[in-house]
Amino acid sequence: MDNIGSTSPSCTNSDTAAALSSSMDSWTVHICPTTGGQYDMKVSPQDCVEVFKKNIAKRLKISKEKISLLHKDRYSF
Q: Domain count of the chain?
């Protein structure tokens, strides 16, 4: 599982970020690329979509501009 903790200051609202960081340290996101395979990535609740896409692009070794994010409403507890 990857631990991603880089947050771009231009992506966050400091009041929201402080509230989120006090209530939750990280989220585990399940990544399922259309090319196959899957992996888990830990992300900070303060990270914006651009930071998230950059980290996925780095893992998949492709340009972040080529990434489309889709959300599937599944939860595992």
A: 1
19-61: pLDDT as tens digits: 444 456 888 888 999 888 899 999 998 889 999 999 999 999 9
How far is residue 13's CA from residue 29's CA, in Å, rounded to a whole number?
Answer: 22
> 57 lies in which domain range?
1-7+33-67
| Whole-number Cα distances in Å, 64 to 12, 14, 26, 67, 71 | 19, 25, 22, 5, 17
* Tokens 């090319």, located at residue: 35
| 28 inside domain | no
pTM of the model: 0.62
